[in-house]
Amino acid sequence: MGLEMDYGRLMDLVSELGYRLLCAGAEIYRAEESVQRLLRAYGVTTGEVFAIPNCLIVSLTTVEGQPMTRVRRVGPHGTDIAQLEAYNALCRAVCENPPSFAAFEGRMSAIAEKRRTFSTPVLLLAHFVGGGAYALFYGGGLRDGICGGISCVAAGLCLMAMGKVGGSNQFIRTLVSGAALALCALVLYQLGLCGNLDMVIIGALMVLVPGIVFTNAIRNVMAGDLTSGVNKFVEALLIGASIALGTGFVLGLSGLFL
What we know:
The protein is mainly alpha-helical. The protein folds into 2 domains: about 5-115, no CATH class; about 120-255, no CATH class. About 65% of the residues lie in helices and about 5% in strands. The radius of gyration is 23 Å and the shape is elongated. The N and C termini lie far apart (about 75 Å).
């Protein structure tokens, strides 16, 4: 395989898999280690991998001494556990028994085609159940739980609508969604449909809290990836600030007019 190795295609394939791992929400060390193991599985011992949350760099030196590098820009993304597990399993399988490049590419494409998506009603139902359950968890009554779910649906609608608008970043989306959530809860409270405004808002807001982002920040720091860990930690802080600003703005205005 060594003399006939197509290093260019190998670089394309391993950098693509690393890119897809990061887009699925993989930790930095997982993406780096996966790409490194893939290079070694195909006999490349001169490969280097560097990743941060929004960039992946893969380089190697061929047997002829020619350096090669691939750089992938990782855009905004969420977390897809099913895709992450599938790509991680593919990486393990390829490392154990390296297939041809065509088979490797075909298996990656098959995983992408099987990506599970949910319809808008299902996503809104998930928001309703999540917001309502958290409102009940924090001590609210049945009416508070229902209102918390409705408020969370309002936030979900804002997230989906702004996600389709080009140029809107996560900070703005979260800020507007938090404001819509608080406004919906306030209207329901004024109509007498819920008895505890605090529990309704707190329960609904939990769906916007960046728990996975913060967890990955801690895992990156513990793995020694301080730059990526601090990056994710700041992202979590900014999302938390946007939640506070959005809800605080609405509640502040309500104190002036109600």
